[in-house]
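Hi Y.,

Following your request, here is the sequence exactly as I used it, all 177 residues.
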Amino acid sequence: MLNLKGKQVYLRALEPTDLDFLYQLENDTAIWEISGTLKPYSKKVLQLYLENAHRDIYEVKQLRLCICNSDDVCIGLIDLFDFDPKHGRAGMGIVISNPSDRNKGVGAEAIELLCNYAFTTLNLHQLYANILEDNEPSIHLFEKMGFEKVGTKKEWIRTSAGFKNEIMFQKIKTNES
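Below is the corresponding structure, written out as tokens. Let me know if you'd prefer a different format.
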């Protein structure tokens, strides 16, 4: 795999030892709205997921990686989903678990590392991200990383407060990517 190490973080494959982190993150109701989660996950289900996490992106159409800091602590997850090699595209999502780790450049570095991997190793033509219109930190992050707003899906996500619009961002590979 291409070098997935930056100055502050590195990306690595999921390991069986990530079960507790995954359990805590996937069951954090504060992020269910952005992740589309509707119910809690059991450790058993997540363990089965980890046992199959080694499967190839061409087979499962998804790649989920841990974002680790210089102390080798997993602080978040970043993934490619809806991988479409024929059309050269994939969706991208990121979550930094602890709010105290946010706004320090680790998300930007993780996105840069995964974009480089996607454009170089996977030879993708474009990446996209779907972000709720009121998630200003994520909008700022993806715009900072060169993603452009290409459209709005009106009343796309149902929440306890009603429907919310979702904004689609896109980054197309350039000679610099």
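The longest helix spans residues 106-120.

Thanks again,
Q.
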